[in-house]
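Hey, resending since the last one bounced:
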Amino acid sequence: MENKEIKTNHRFLDEAGDTTFYGTGKIPVIGNNGVSLSFILGLVKFRDPLEDVRQRIIKLQQQVQNDPYYKGVPSIQKKISKGNFYFHATDDPAEVRKTFFEFMREIDCSFEGVVARKIPRLYERKHNGNEIEFYADMLSHLLKNKFQKQGKLVLNIAQRGKSTRNAVLEMARQKAEKRFTDNKEGRAVKTEIVFNIQNHTTEPLLNIADYFCWALQRVFERGEIRYYEFLMDKIPVVVDLYDQENYEKWGNYYGPKRPLTAKNKISPPLH
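The structure tokens again:
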């Protein structure tokens, strides 16, 4: 009997926010200047051919880089001075964001994200006050429903210091597999998940993951929903993991039929 070729699928993962809970002396700093109220992980699935999308992004990057209108924009010129311009929502001026968001509307892709509100008591109890465990647990929620299809899943993940070290990613994969098998006893794991650490400067498809994550971040940090609404048809599911008020009956799951609103904005904690 001939061996069938193993099918390989790709997903592209990025983040928004940070995993910081404490400052010096273990004083909570959540919501302070430069410290986010939540941490977001999300991954993109492309149905258009990957190389076609990749080349289209590169072409768009070059257009921005060569546009004299952006000649004096520091964030753009800084990237050019280090090699080439790439799209990164936090740094990009509004005109560039609009260009890239409109481009994303043309791509056949979908995004799913998980959001973790930064709650110190939960962080201590559930993650032992450890940022690595916090990150791995979050990633496991993205992966836990990815073991059902035969073949290999390559998770192309934006490099992020200690969090994207192989040991941390493997911890996340094991947690995800346990969640998958525990959900239905005897369920078989069919998918081999492997990680491919990438960089925004060399993998343009990560630029799209970055923009999706940024759009979610604006909802949860600022109550600003226009970016999310612009892309909502491409975001089938967002899980607000620790939204305790709406946890019952899947109330912390959001999608086009039950979209996020400005009410999903997280209130700053009382330190």
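The radius of gyration is 19 Å.

Sorry for the duplicate.
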